[in-house]
Specification:
This protein is an alpha+beta fold. It contains three helices and three strands, in the order E-H-H-E-E-H. It is elongated and about 55 Å long.
């Protein structure tokens, strides 16, 4: 069985909880921190490992922000 390497735009939009159009617009604007994408033959492909690393980085950032707020509140 071949393991998948990429998510489709529809799958990525669903994972992010946004519409496909919003996702494509955000990439065009370049104004959001989004998972890595590869454009190939007019299609956007989202590497699964890239998404997983991006998600882990985002979650780590959120945890660090929470810890910083708790530390600040204790002062």
């Amino acid at each position: 069985m071949i393991e998948r390497e990429f998510y489709t735009t529809n799958e990525m939009a669903k994972l992010l909880g946004i519409s496909k159009i919003a996702l494509l617009n955000w990439y065009k604007e370049g104004s959001h921190d989004l998972p890595p994408v590869i454009k190939n033959a007019g299609k956007f492909l989202y590497p699964i490992t890239g998404y997983e690393k991006w998600k882990a980085r985002k979650e780590a950032g959120s945890i660090n922000e929470i810890r910083a707020r708790i530390k600040e509140e204790r002062r």
